[in-house]
Predict the structure of Putative YccA/Bax inhibitor family protein.
Amino acid sequence: MALGGNPVFNSKSYREQTGPNAATATFHAQPNLSAQELQDLYTKPSAGPQQTGRMTYASVINKTMATFAVLLIGAVIGWQAPGLMIVGAIVGLVLGLVNSFKKQPSPILILLYAGFEGLFVGGLSGYLEAQYPGIAGQAVLATLSVFAVVLVLYRSGKYRATPKMTKMFMAAMIGYVLFSLLNFVLMITGVAGGQFGMRSGLLGIGIGILAVLLATYALVLDFTSISEGVRNGAPEKFSWTAAFGLTVTMVWLYIEILRILAILRGDD
C-alpha cells in the first residue's frame, strides 16, 4: 500500500523492496540427505528476521539512533560555528534529494546528510538562542513530546493513515511548499522583510501550526511504511532508508516548532 507523504518511503525502490512479495524466497532441494538429516532440518527452529537479513524494528531503531547521533554531532559544530549553517543547508538539501531518489540506500550518504543537516539545525538554533534564550531547549522538548504522542497514538490504533486523509495531506503539502517557495523568493529579493518574511505574526503562527500538523501525519505515514516493511520482510539494508525518512520528518518538525516559538517570543 503506497500511502504517499514522505518521498523517502514513497520511492519506487522502497515500495518494491517492502511490498507483499519482498520476503518471497526460492526453495532449493538438497539431494543425498539422510532421513535423520531431513528430520533435523524439520525440527530446527525457524530462522528469525535478523538471521535471514530482513528488516526488524530493532534494526530500524539502531540505524535511526546512529543517524541522530551524527545529526547531534553536526548540530554541536553548527552551534559553535553558525557560519556553517548555509553550507549545511545547501549540502543537506542536495544530499536529501539524492538519498530520496536513490534506488538503493547508501549508509554513508545518509550519515553525511545527517551531519550536514545537523550543521544547519545547530546553526539556526544557536542564532535564535542568542536572541531568545532557552528557545532551543523548548523546541527540542516540544519536538520529542509530539513524537512520543504520535507514536503512542499510532501504536494504540487511534491515529492511522487513511486514503482520504492522505489525499488531504498531499493537497495541503502542495500548498505549503508553494507558499514556502514564494516566501523564500520574496525574502531574497527584499520584498518581504524580517527573519521569516511573510511567515511572521498571526499568519506565520497559522502556517507553522499547519506545518506541525502535516509533520505529525508524515510521522504516521513513516510508521506505517516501516511496519509494512517489517511485516513483508524487506531487506535489512532498507532499515537505513527508514532511519533517513524519520530523520527528515523529525528535522522538519523541529524547525517548524522552533520557528513558531521564535515568532511568539518576538511578539512579547
In short: The radius of gyration is 22 Å. DSSP finds nine helices and no strands in the chain. The chain has one domain: 54-266.
